[in-house]
Amino acid sequence: MDEKTGVTAAALAAIPFRSLGTSGMRVPALGVGTNRWGRRGKGADELLPVFSAALDAGANLFDTAEVYLGSETTIGECRRRDPRPALLVSKFAPYPTRLSARSFHKALEGSLTRLGTDSVDLYLIHFPFSLLGIGILVDRLAEVARAGKARAVGVSNFSARQMYAAAERLERHGIPLAANEVQFSLFHRDPEGNCVLEACRELDVALIAYRPLAGGRSPQEGSALGRTLAGIARAREKTVAQVALNWLLRKDEHVLAIPGATSVAHVRENVGAVGWTLDDDEFAALERSST
Ligand SMILES: NC(=O)c1ccc[n+]([C@@H]2O[C@H](COP(=O)([O-])OP(=O)(O)OC[C@H]3O[C@@H](n4cnc5c(N)ncnc54)[C@H](OP(=O)(O)O)[C@@H]3O)[C@@H](O)[C@H]2O)c1
Known about the structure:
The protein has helices at 9-14, 44-57, 71-81, 101-115, 134-146, 160-172, 190-193, 196-203, 224-236, 240-251, 264-271, 280-289; strands at 17-19, 26-28, 32-33, 61-63, 87-92, 120-125, 150-156, 177-183, 206-210, 255-257. By secondary structure, the protein is an alpha/beta fold. The strands form two sheets. The chain has an eight-stranded parallel beta sheet, with helices on one face. The relative contact order is 0.14. The model has no long low-confidence stretch (mean pLDDT 94). Residues 33-36, 63, 156-157, 181, 210-216, 241, 258-263, 266, 269-270 line the site of NADP nicotinamide-adenine-dinucleotide phosphate.
């Protein structure tokens, strides 16, 4: 077992590791999204097997946020019951009423308490909206990185232009912008058209793809994408979800995916998206049919 990440040798062989930008951190390319953890009475009693299955498989990167009601608390409780190392991503919500530095640091302290940790592995600004402007928010990210409360820092839902601004401001503090978490999948390819993927390549920043399975909805029956996905899945003896995630991870070395899952079966299925690679023809067919 890798001492630092807690990942077993078998899983290390299957799940590729990718860099969180130039932060020096390497994390599994496939993690778990938890925005439904803690909802509808789903707490640690129900979700511990899901948490442990992700750790068993080496997908030990958990994406959460203070606004995912109950998620941080559920993860904190799961960590107490299964203390193997887990990598934690959380986010600050820059609501217009939260203007003071105190509100920023209080929000982070709340996340750390709920998660049961002294520091998160990655702390993000959840979305760019704020009366404060990007510069001040980014200065606060730098403060938490310097205080050792986040091993790396980044943003979410930022445009390419906003990413450049954030990276430039962080650079003044000598801290790299590690990631931009945005919606990206075969079903939602905006980051290719709006230059966010290009900015991630140019700035060497990780693109953490959220909603990589379009919220679990199957592609429209009979659509070109639906037929192509189903055909490749059949030929490869994989599922449509595994093919969709494999496409995403093959797209670029900067991409990580955090499919949301609240069942052990889904975690295991999603881990089966790695350890094999779509060939050039399959990749091109998916690209053609999803535009
Ligand atoms: N930064 C942001 O602004 C932002 C916004 C949205 C989401 N996120 C993050 O991104 C994560 C992922 O996004 P998401 O959860 O909205 O969408 P998603 O990952 O595209 O889809 C999750 C849904 O797909 C289902 N699912 C999981 N694996 C599956 C599989 N192999 N086959 C079929 N269905 C499967 C899940 O069901 P079960 O629950 O039954 O397993 C759930 O209903 C979130 O959990 C959150 O951490 C971030």
